[in-house]
């Protein structure tokens, strides 16, 4: 049977809330929760994914290319950043699009994203990207929910939020994201230093083996932009120097900022 509703089920609380709303409004017949695994997810994401999918109902479909974002950066010889994200293009968008093409009919199936009322700018980009699929954002409809209300709702159903939410804005890629800013990586360093060290080492390897002058982060000190490596960020923190804590950045895998 062609699915009527496919929710991009990323492992975050917003995609759970979007799926919950679809299940409540339209039932779970023909409902698919589509998860694309980057093989770099936090361990607790899988606990949350199972509990959240059980709560919603419908069919949980897991996809995986098999590579991690770092594998993709080395393969395409390009380090992702806040504007160009080969990682989510390859590991999420193209993978999910292939699945849609094989299992769904654009005349029947609606694709749902967990964007909320604060993300109007992203939904238009997503709609353009996912054509011919009809893209909906259930959380942009009334009643609008604040993030704390989504969290409360989750707790009231006996599901603990993913553990990364204790310090991060999202539950993607194990707390890593090439679209994140200095403040986010500062928090990763404070909360998961081993994981930070892994990404720092990967970035250093990329600079050695592929392109020496690139970095995930940017430094705006003095008004000009220049690449800021994770190693430099860590050294600044260790030396007690200032980093831009307000530069949190974003994390969106299902719309593309620029074609990559
Ligand atoms: S969360 Fe960030 S790093 Fe991970 S796939 Fe999405 S854009 Fe890439």
The tally of beta strands, per DSSP, is 7
- CATH homologous superfamily descriptor of the domain at 5-71 and 87-162: HUPs
CATH architectural type of the domain at 5-71 and 87-162: 3-Layer(aba) Sandwich
* Estimated radius of gyration: 19 Å
User: What is the H/E string?
Assistant: EHEHEHHEHEHHHEEH
Main sheet characteristics: 5 strands, parallel
What is the CATH class designation of the domain at 5-71 and 87-162?
A: Alpha Beta
Give the proportion of residues in helices: 40-55%
Class of secondary structure makeup:
alpha/beta
Pick out the low-confidence regions. none
Distance between the termini: 34 Å
Structure description:
- Helices cover 43% and strands 11% of the residues.
- Strands 3-2-1-4-5 form a five-stranded parallel beta sheet, sandwiched between helices. A two-stranded antiparallel ribbon has the order 6-7.
- The protein is globular and about 55 Å long.
- Strand 4 (110-112), helix 5 (120-130) and strand 5 (134-136) form a beta-alpha-beta unit.
- The protein is an alpha/beta fold.
- Helix 3 (69-76) crosses helix 4, helix 7 (182-191) crosses helix 8 and helix 7 (182-191) crosses helix 9.
- It has a domain at 5-71 and 87-162: Rossmann fold, CATH 3.40.50.620.
- Bound molecules: iron/sulfur cluster (SF4).
- Residues 38, 69, 80, 85, 87-88, 91, 172-173, 176-179, 251, 253 line the site of iron/sulfur cluster.
């Amino acid at each position: 049977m062609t699915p009527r509703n496919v929710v991009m089920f990323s492992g975050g609380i917003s995609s759970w809330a979007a799926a919950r709303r679809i299940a409540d409004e339209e039932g779970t017949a023909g409902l698919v929760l589509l998860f694309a695994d980057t093989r770099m997810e936090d361990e607790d994401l899988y606990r949350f994914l199972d509990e959240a999918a059980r709560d919603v109902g419908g069919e949980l479909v897991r996809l995986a290319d098999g590579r991690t974002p770092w594998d993709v950066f080395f393969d395409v010889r390009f380090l992702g950043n806040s504007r160009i994200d080969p990682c989510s293009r390859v590991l999420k968008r193209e993978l999910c699009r292939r699945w849609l093409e094989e299992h769904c009919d654009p005349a029947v199936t609606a694709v749902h994203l967990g964007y909320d009322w604060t993300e109007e700018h992203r939904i238009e980009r997503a709609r353009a990207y996912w054509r011919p699929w009809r893209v909906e954002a259930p959380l942009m409809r009334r009643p609008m929910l604040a993030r704390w209300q989504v969290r409360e709702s989750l707790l009231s159903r006996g599901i603990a939020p993913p553990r990364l939410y204790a310090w991060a804005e999202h539950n993607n890629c194990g707390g890593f994201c090439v679209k994140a800013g200095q403040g986010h990586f500062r928090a990763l360093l404070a909360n998961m230093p081993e994981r930070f060290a892994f990404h720092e080492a990967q970035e250093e390897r990329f600079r050695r083996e592929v392109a020496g002058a690139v970095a995930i982060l940017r430094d705006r000190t003095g008004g000009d932009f220049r690449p800021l490596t994770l190693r430099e960020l860590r050294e600044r923190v260790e030396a007690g120097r200032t980093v831009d804590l307000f530069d949190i950045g974003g994390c969106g895998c299902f719309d593309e900022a620029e074609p990559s």
